[in-house]
Amino acid sequence: MPRKLNVHEDRPCVLCGDCSPGARKTISVDEVLAILDMTSDKFKKNQVWRTIENVCLSAIAVQKKEKIQSFHETASICCSCMNWTQRKKCVKVTPILHLKWHFRTLMPINKKRFDKRVIHRLSVILSQPDNFYRCLFTKSELKAMEKMATMKAKDVNLVVAALYQSQNIHSLFVTDSNVAELVRR
Fold first, then answer.
1. Strand (E) positions, 37-171?
2. Is residue 131 within 8 Å of residue 78, measured between CB atoms?
3. Interatomic CA distance for residues 158 and 99, integer angstroms
4. Count of alpha carbons within 13 Å of 134, Cβ hemisphere only?
5. Which helix or strand (DSSP H or E) is residue 164 part of?
6. Neighbours of 171 (CB within 10 A)
């Protein structure tokens, strides 16, 4: 996976758009595209998937212009997303796509629920004004993420449940007992 730690990397993370200063690793663009190719068909070709693919393809174009050898193009990846790709090998979904899915359905993609710490971290990252993935979220989702960024990680489920209810017109019916449990809290 990621090749080396690069403390002076100034490119944002390809998977979450994190622009904050900090240690990053470089990852082959081909590896990111391979992760996208292994994504389940129901997640392919949505906005998040297409945006990450376009970021990778533009990285290839820019590095080709700078005479980087073909198939050696790299992208930047933050340490949190690198850990995500290492640990979530059975779930071939990027963190941003998982967050978007969670906001819309409150349903887990795999057997485990989406961790509150990950939701909080992504909310902090997406609250950065220069994060290019912000355009993929609605105004209400961005407002909820800004609110979650100021909270403790253990309390974000209340904001997510309120966002879910407002997006679904405060419906009395939900798709699953787990969703009902989250909404009731």
1. 74-78
2. no
3. 15
4. 18
5. helix 156-167
6. 11
Radius of gyration of the chain (CA): 17
Taking only the tens place, the pLDDT of each residue in 55-112 is: 888 888 887 777 766 667 778 888 888 888 877 666 677 888 888 888 888 776 766 6
Confidence of residue 3 (pLDDT cuts 50, 70, 90): very low
Q: 3-class SS at 183? A: helix
158/120 Cα distance (integer angstroms): 12
Compute the distance between CA of residue 112 and CA of residue 156 in angstroms, rounded to an integer: 17
Inter-residue contact 15 to 94 (CB < 8 Å): yes
Give the residue from 130, 122, 133 showing the smallest Cα distance to 159.
122
Q: What is the pLDDT of residues 116-142, one digit of tens each?
A: 888 899 999 999 999 989 999 989 999
List beta partners, residue 75. Answer: 27
Spatial separation of the C-alpha atoms in residues 63 and 71, rounded to whole Å: 10
